[in-house]
Amino acid sequence: MEQKDFKMVAKTMYGLEGVLANELEALGAKNVEKLNRAVSFEGDMNMLYKANYQLRTAITILKPIYSFEANSDKELYDNIYKFKWEKLLNADGVLSIEPSVYSSIFTHSLYASQKTKDAICDRFRRMFNQRPTLTKENPDLILNLHINENQVTVSLNSSGDSLHRRNYRLRAEMAPINEVLAAGLIQLSGWKRDCNFFDPMCGSGTMVIEAAMFAYNIPAQYYRYDFAFKKWADFSMPEFRRVRDEADKGITEFDYEIWGSDISGSAIKTATENINNAKLHKDIELFRADIQEQNPPEGKTLIIMNPPYGQRIETDDLFNLYDIIGRVFKNKYSGNTAWIISSDMEAFKYVALRPSQKITVYNSNLECKFCKYDIYDGSKKAKKQQGNQEEQEQENQD
Ligand SMILES: C[S@@+](CC[C@H](N)C(=O)[O-])C[C@H]1O[C@@H](n2cnc3c(N)ncnc32)[C@H](O)[C@@H]1O
Fold it and tell me: What would the pLDDT profile of 142-170 be if each residue is shown by its tens digit?
């Protein structure tokens, strides 16, 4: 059956908009446009299913359904009241509203959400003498209410729970990296699945699991079953199954090694459980080791690491750790590329190597830099080349 295209918005994290736009283009989305922490695109229901199932760097896929201008509470209420909500929800259904409000007219997002709820419920009550229940628990329909000054957009949240919940992580250690961010960093590094991957501070294993999923082309939501769109009136299970089967057929071989290590026994235990749960135990090797003791796999290797930052560690120990990281880079990783994500700009200085690239990203609300280090062989000639290249790159950045 010929399906109509419509607009969608994939929300993401700051700094990952470009990666997400590339992912969408690769999926065949139309009119892909980068926004702030989001990417808009067009496609049909098939694309909506694909976007939810396959995008590694999307948090939520929204389907905007209704936009209008509102300059007062009354205008918000009246416009919401007019919409035919009964086409999307039964009178005895369960509704949830997620407000995101940036407006001098509507200064309290909960109040705007309450007005929206009142208008929808009043309409149902007038038509059916019954109104939907409002709760976040297992809703039939999730409305995203976005107000930017006087511009109101109501969208259907097609994903439900944030898409970083891939459903492979059973437990987490302290400060686990968000799966969407991990997947984004891997793609920002420009990895072409053409060498080994190593995270020497792997914690709960998020980075190595995302690396393996990327390397083997395992769909981002391979382990997840719940999506909000499954409760929509127009949901087609056969169509969704086709999307899933087609994406699953794309799972491929990967000829290199994926390794993770961590000094903490508890972290290695947690990572092992998560990796087993994702059935990736044959594809990822884990070691309990201090970064100073652990060699990377033999051959060309991409290293991405998320060392501790600030909060839970003494400053002196932190600086010492980053100093050790820099030494390990020079002594053990030469000939490779290593990336560090950290929010601690002071600690970065202790790595004592000049990054050839710095990208700003956010880990929850912490502004971080994702820094690239090209680690050359120790020979004089190589060092000179590195110096020249660093100077050139610094000039380009300045
Ligand atoms: C921010 S956490 C990494 C979180 C991880 N990305 C995740 O998703 O769970 C930092 C990790 O570095 C480890 N670590 C700290 N010092 C280390 C060292 N000297 N050698 C190896 N690992 C170390 C800690 O045990 C911790 O698991």
Answer: 999 999 999 999 999 999 999 999 999 98
